[in-house]
Structures are given as C-alpha cells and as structure tokens.
Design a protein that fits this description.
By secondary structure, the protein is of the alpha/beta class. The chain contains 7 helices and 11 strands.
C-alpha cells in the first residue's frame, strides 16, 4: 500500500500512510538508512527511543534490520516513571529492552533510573551523558495531549535550561497510559516521571516522529494547525531542521485539508 500523501508544516515533513503497519515499516527503513549513512563518517551513532504502544510496529521492523551495524549504536530512552517497581512491565526501560535492546547487538544502552535515591542527581547524571554522547537521531511519538516525552503542556518549556528533569504528570497523560492498556486504573499510574526536556529532544540532528491511531487524531490536528507554543508541546517539532512526522489514515483523520 502506497503512501497517501506528503505534506509540510513549517520545516517539518509529514508523511501519511494507509495503515500503522506500513507507517512502522517505512519509518524503520528511513531510520535504518540514516544510521547507515551516519556510520560511513563516524564510529558511533547515538539514538534516543520512545517507549509506547504506538512504537510497536516500528520497533519490530527496526529490530529486523540485520544490515545495520548495531555494535556501533549507543541508545538512550526519553523518559521513565519515578518509583515504579523494578520488575514492573510498564517501565519504559523494560519496554524497550524487550522490543529492541535485547534483539540486536547494540553497543551500549544508557537507562534512566526511575528509582534512584536522589532523582535530581539522576537527572544531572543523564544530562551529562547526553552531552557526552550528543544525539544524532530521536525516534519519538506524540501523546494525546500533544506531549513529547513527558513534557505535558503544564511543564513544557521551549527554552528550558535543563536537559533532564522530574515532572508531575497531568491527568490526560496518566489516563493515556490506561487507554493504551498499560495500566488497569489511573490510580496505578505513577504521578511523577523523569523526562528529557523539549530543548534536549530537539538537540537531535534528525527526528523521526511516529504517531498512528485514531486516539491521536486530535493531537495531530493541534500539532499541525496550532501556533507553535507550549500549550501544544509537539508544535515545537515544526521548527526543527530535520523532522519527519509519520501518520496513518486514522491519526491524520482530523487534518484541515482533504488528503484522501
């Protein structure tokens, strides 16, 4: 099934596909291609990944790319719950470990410790790692409230001086975890998380943002049609010099223009 259409929103490219399966495959191909291009001229590539059901098809397809030299890839993840049991399957580190990091011979994975005794110190540690290993690629999604990582509208700061910080999650963000069948009830969802800030995410040279599904249609409408501002954190992607937003028919369903 072919790509339906390609649009632009400010600097950001928007690619729309028929299904989330095709979206995941095409995005994984583009990311794999970018990794191989970068490895021609450098020893390692540094990549940050999002952990969410919206990334499942992409992560599966990416894990099948045996022609990528994973031994020259360093991996990070963009957020983690604070205080969730080490063995909880909902931990973002565990999610990515099961779907990608254990499936390819990756060089090094740098995990956020959501159970660190001193969360602020953990934020400083991870910020230093990101400076030591500048991000080449960010693979991310967009939340139902337009958050990127856990930069919900009430904490998003496009000029944040911090690279990593502790945030209180808003109710929409917590409810999304229930909507995604990650938790049974909102009371089970942690109230706090450690997240990369908006400026830290946008430091990546290339951004691949994957957003399938009808539950994200409103978020995509605001991402593309609203003014760039912190009330809709994902609008920040529109000013990045190399960002691609991947949609399927469902997530693109509320866009202003006729695209089908």
């Amino acid at each position: 099934m072919a790509q339906i259409e390609e649009l632009t929103a400010n600097k950001m490219k928007v690619k729309i596909y028929e299904t989330r399966l095709q979206l995941g495959y095409e995005a994984s191909y583009d990311v794999g291609k970018k990794i191989k291009e970068l490895l021609i001229s450098r020893e390692f590539v540094n990549i940050i990944f999002a952990a969410a059901p919206s990334q499942n098809e992409f992560l599966f397809s990416l894990s099948q790319q045996q022609d990528v030299d994973w031994s020259r890839v360093n991996a990070f993840h963009m957020d983690e719950y604070v205080g969730l049991d080490e063995k909880a399957p909902q931990r973002f580190s565990q999610f990515l470990k099961e779907r990608l990091f254990d499936k390819v011979p990756i060089n090094k994975v740098h995990y956020i410790n959501g159970n660190a005794d001193d969360p602020q110190a953990e934020c400083c540690r991870y910020s230093k790692l990101l400076k030591q290993y500048p991000l080449d690629i960010a693979c991310m999604g967009i939340g139902e409230n337009t958050h990127i990582a856990f930069n919900d509208p009430h904490v998003a700061d496009f000029n944040d001086p911090l690279g990593v910080k502790v945030v209180a999650l808003d109710e929409v963000s917590r409810q999304q975890q229930v909507n995604d069948d990650c938790f049974r009830h909102i009371e089970e969802v942690p109230a706090f998380a450690i997240t990369l800030t908006v400026p830290a995410l946008l430091q990546a040279d290339s951004i691949f943002c994957l957003v399938p599904g009808i539950k994200k249609a409103s978020a995509i409408y605001y991402t593309i049609n609203s003014e760039v501002n912190e009330s809709y954190p994902s609008t920040s992607l529109r000013n990045h010099n190399d960002a691609i937003l991947y949609l399927d028919r469902d997530s693109a369903g509320k866009l202003d223009r006729k695209i089908f």
